[in-house]
Each structure stands twice: as C-alpha cells, then as structure tokens.
Amino acid sequence: MASLKLKVSYRCSNNNTNSIPFSLSSFCKKEVTQIRFPNTTISPPKLHLQALGNARAKVLFSAKIAAGTVNEVLPPPLDSTSEPPQFFDGTTRLYISYTCPFAQRVWITRNCKGLQDKIKLVILDRENRPAWYKEKINSADKVPSLEHNNEFKGESLDLIKYIDSHFEGPSLFPHDPDKKEFAEELLSYTDKFNKAVFSSFERDGNVAGAAFDCIETALSKFGDGPFFLGQFSLVDIAYAPFIERFQPFLLDVKKYDIIAGRPKLEAWIKEMDKNDAYKQTRREPKELVEIYKKRFSTLL
C-alpha cells in the first residue's frame, strides 16, 4: 500500500533611602510538514489515527516545554577535574551554577521561552570551577555565560534580553512605550535594590524596609496583573532569584518579614511560585539560608 505522509507541529512563536529611585508617574504557529511511514499492513483509517496520535503527542510535548511544565533531567556540576565541551560546535550552551542568583535569571528566561531543547545547560561547581572556564569562556570567572554563534557572552541582565530577542518563544519584554520605559528603570534599579538589602545584613533587618517599600510601590504601577508590568516579564525574572533568597534569610536571621504590610509583594511572590519555568530553577529555602549565613558570616 502507499506510504502515508503526515506530521503536524506547533512552534511557539547602596544606601537605603525613603525616596523612590524610579518614576511611578502563549504564541503558537501551526506548521505542517511530511513524515514518511514505511509500508505496513495497518489499514488506512488506523494508520491515519496513529499518525494523528503521534502528532498530538508532539504538539502536547512542545506546548509543555513552552509553558515550562516539562521537568528536564538536570546534569551534575562540572568541577576542576572535568573536561571542557567542544566549543563552537553548533551547540548553544548556557553556563551556570545551580545556586547563583545571577545565573538563575538566565536559566528562568530560557525555560520561559521553551528553549530547553535549544540551549543546553552546563553546570559548574561554584566552589571548584574548571580552570578552562576562566581561561576560555569568562575571564572574570563568573557565571552566567552563553555560548552562541561562535561567541561567549556574559552579564545576566544583558543575557536575558539577548535570549528574549534572539530566540523563538513568547516575548518577555513589553511593546507598550510606558511599560517599556518603566521596565528599563526597574532593571536599572536591581543592583541598587540588592546592595540596599545586602547592607542590612550587618544591621537591623528593618534597614531593608525602604528597598522593599520601593518594590511594593513599583508593583502598584499597573493594574492589569500581579507582576511589575502587570503581565509577566523580564523584570520579574530579574528580581525573583534575589527575593527568593532575601525572604527566608531575613526572616530566619533578622526576624524581618518582607511581606508584612506589603500585599502587592505578597501577591507577587505567590504568583511567581505558580510559574513552573521558575520553580524548576529554585533551591530549597533552608539551603539558600545556609549559603547566605556562610557567605555573610562576618556581617552577622
């Protein structure tokens, strides 16, 4: 009997201050290609149903990846004894450490774009990195780094924008001019926010209050959703890894609850916790607290 050809897929297109440091004034395209089935004794109706079943499974799997609901098998970290990969072989690689919040930003972006099968994770032991990483990839010996188009790129905020604009998947940056402007202001504020909270570690936890008040105010800017720009964006990705660490650490060590009296921040955290693409990158709060206790032991 004649071979049947059918395949359907979908591609998813520093010091604390009481002043506010900034202004307060999924996508799927159907594709039909061909796949050849070998000669078989299955009747045409059954063969047609089999083809549709396989196509449906592929569609569902692609949709789960794009939604961040597929839990990939994560690789073990590479240490000083590990050999490097074959650089510039056509594989796009994201070099991260599991416990680095800067690297986590880019990891989340990758997952939210549904790029688990397009960007390969290379995990590095944060305390015992291979020498070749500093020599060949990142002279500052910091993560994250992205290997793409025969180049190595770094800096987490630059990388989340790069991945969003250079790879397929849902857009994570606004097109609305007002939201775009506010997004840039919030991204620029991330370092000041982090430094303000870090400075509170050697003092009373309440010292961080002004910084979290700024976050609460920023979350009140738009009313069309619980996120910084109303809808989920790169801004949420930029802040999430740090708030994920600050919340349990300040509560455990300083007895300071960052969500007390801040309903917008509380709602934002709850919404972020529902995001599967983000949840796949999270560590246990106890682990994060212990890491910060060790890192900031001289300040406590």
From TrEMBL:
Give any GO molecular function from the UniProt entry.
glutathione transferase activity
- Record's protein name: glutathione transferase
What InterPro entries is this protein classified in? Glutathione-S-Trfase_C_sf, Glutathione_S-Trfase_N, GSTL1/2/3, Thioredoxin-like_sf
Q: What are the GST N-terminal domain coordinates in residue numbering?
A: 90-171
Record-stated family:
Belongs to the GST superfamily. Lambda family.
Lineage top rank: taxon:
Eukaryota
Instruction: Output one GO BP term.
Output: response to toxic substance
Q: What class of enzyme is it?
A: transferase
